[in-house]
């Protein structure tokens, strides 16, 4: 037996060190594949998260208060202005949220504090709850209803004077 090794070259695949065309093959370091792998994992995780279904709810207003947020005294050029900039009033309401889906309003028996930018009266309203977002159908002066956006501020009634 001879100590020489015979290297067989396949014309289609080449040798272990060369590709089919015979040029030297370069290997890509694993560090280049890591960001792609992490992005793929993040994408798979995001698509597997269950979306919270929207639930039809009824809202009964208990009490509410309107507050003006703290005023800013800088204009868009970062120079002081003569007076505070105008801001809109924010309304907080202690409400009772009712639904046929008891699991959706199970926190504190549906006695929540919500926040929005329009005033609600002591009526019962219909709406849709999706996570902490609440769309409430509000009657307009012309008789039509308009969906207004509110946010669940807290899953319990708040002392409105402390907000």
Task: Provide a concise account of the structure shown.
With 163 residues, the protein is mainly beta. It has one helix at residues 30-48; strands at 55-67, 90-98, 111-116, 124-130, 133-139, 145-154.
What does this structure look like?
The protein is mainly beta. It has a domain at 55-162. Helices cover 12% and strands 32% of the residues. The chain is built from one helix and six strands. A six-stranded antiparallel barrel has the order 1-2-3-6-5-4. A hairpin with a 2-residue loop joins β4 and β5 (133-139). The longest helix is centred in the first third of the chain and has 19 residues, at 30-48. The N and C termini lie far apart (93 Å).
* Oligomeric state of shown chains: single chain
As a whole number of angstroms, the C-alpha radius of gyration is: 32 Å
The first-to-last residue Cα distance is: 93 Å
Q: List the strand order in the largest sheet.
A: 1-2-3-6-5-4
Provide the β-strand percentage band: 25-35%
Helix and strand run: HEEEEEE
- Overall morphology: elongated
The structural class is mainly beta
Uncertain parts: none
Determine the fraction of residues in helical runs and give it as a percent range: 10-25%
């Amino acid at each position: 037996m001879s100590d020489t090794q015979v290297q067989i070259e396949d014309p289609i695949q080449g040798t272990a060190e060369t590709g089919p065309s015979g040029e030297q093959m370069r290997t890509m370091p694993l560090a280049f594949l890591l960001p792609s792998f992490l992005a793929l994992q993040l994408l798979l995780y995001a698509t597997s998260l269950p979306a919270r279904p929207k639930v039809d709810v009824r809202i009964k207003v208990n009490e509410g208060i309107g507050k003006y947020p703290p005023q800013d005294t800088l204009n868009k050029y970062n120079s002081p202005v003569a007076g505070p900039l105008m801001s809109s009033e924010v309304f907080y309401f202690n409400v009772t949220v009712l639904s046929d889906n008891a699991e959706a309003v199970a926190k504190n028996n549906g006695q929540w504090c919500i926040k929005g930018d329009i005033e609600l009266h002591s009526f019962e309203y219909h709406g849709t709850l999706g996570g902490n977002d609440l769309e409430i159908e509000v009657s307009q002066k012309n008789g039509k209803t308009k969906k207004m956006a509110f946010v669940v501020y807290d899953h319990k009634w708040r002392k409105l004077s402390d907000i």
